[in-house]
Amino acid sequence: RATMKSLRFISAEAFVSNAEFARKSLSSVAHNLFPLLFKASYLLEQGEVIHDLVENWPFVDFNMGKLLGTTVDYQEDLSHRTCSVCLESCLTGLRDYVLNHPSPYVKRLKVVDLTGIKDVEVQFCECKKTMGRWARTQLLSKLCLELLVYLEQRRCNPGIFEISIDVLIDLFVTERNYELVVQALLKKCYCPLKICCVAFRSDNLALQKFFYITKLIDPSLLRKLEIVHNVRLEMEHLQMLFNSIHFPLLMSLTLPARTFNVRRFTATDEQMLTNIGEKMGKMTQLTELSMSFSILTGRIQKLLSPLKTPLKMLDVSNCSLNHADMAYLANSFHANHLEALDLSGHNIPDLYPSTFFKLLSHSSSVLRSLTLEDCNIQDTHVNMLILSLSPCQKLQEFRFLGNPLSSQALKHLFTFLCELPMLKNVEFPVPRDCYPTGITYPVDDACLCRFDHQKYDSVAEELNLILLQANREDVKASTPLFGSYDAAVQETNNELGAYLIKSFKETLEKFTTSLNKMS
Known about the structure:
- Belongs to the PRAME family. LRRC14 subfamily.
- By secondary structure, the chain is α/β, with parallel strands linked by helices.
- 42% of the residues lie in helices and 10% in strands.
- It has a 13-stranded parallel beta sheet.
- Strand 6, helix 11 and strand 7 form a beta-alpha-beta unit.
- The N and C termini lie far apart (70 Å).
């Protein structure tokens, strides 16, 4: 659906569409038109014009999220367009803002905010080439170092060294870009462009390097910390992290799989868990917590009860929660504030149906996203599920992949889902009757794609027809077999794959060595 454009925006598009003319004329353009021209240039992917607009930016701040978001002249939000041409032009324009202005004393820019850029699966830009979070981290670090080299080699106006621009960014660091980012952070005090990390994602990184770079990024500014795949952080390391570094503004924390494993707990470990809970309790801004694939049986209360601020997002998927854990969640003060909840990998209908019902009833007034993948929800449980979801009138996303539901049960469920007014996204499982008889759940990766695709397409068509007949074309229904899209994983999957192959090879070598010793 086309978004209406004002005459001002149409005029701006016409102006920037001739890049050569626009660039020559910028010096005579009124300053208050720069934001309008920037959005028009971004829409038309006019990289050279974007570069020159940023290079001559007349304001104190440059906020990508606000500039590309909904505006009076053009309501479409462009902040999800991570167009490589546009973003590279922005960043090189920023470098040249420092270097190429006639007088440093007329420069007003103090803050550049790049955190409003959203990485999504489907890109609408013409070039179809994206610049993800990892690549943005890489390019900004590279430009900061190039800028320093340039300033060292040439006799620049001394006023340039008076320029100080905070560049707010969500950093994404892996083994491959670690050295470059570390160098940029170490030399931050000398560079006119100051990298200010607001969110930090670490993936495929040795623990020692993770600890070192975490201290460099200035944890006092950090609002979001994601420690994900191939960072071998266990509970004792987490305690060390919290004991040595303070995160006063941290709002969101994601921990890697197997951070906790209560099955091998000693008395010392119990004390360590208590200590971690107390440390998290001092993070007064913390409202989002993800601890998937840890074993936390019977310890949820110990970990979450010290928190002073209610959680808005909780991911405890595949954490082997028991009835006591679920009872604590249902009765805790967090329940009334949960906007996003992931309980995947728990046998909800058999283990704690009434407690789950209670938890959803408490969070129903605010719950926006619910994920119940691989929860053994069967046809006989659909009415119970509908009853549980009925009060959740603000639900926008519902994911329930990997549950053994028949085509008939899915149709029944979809008829109900049409009644949830805010619903926008549904991820549903391949119907059980599309798989060969005797399939066991959870379905392993080897069997995941071995279903009757023709029958599935027919059922999916019927489910979409149910939505269509209820005038719910606004709801997107899909079956992403290997889980929801993750922009960060997608961007670095080659590095991740290489790491996994290397790990597998090392394991095989150790195994072979052990066999040789035995023989």
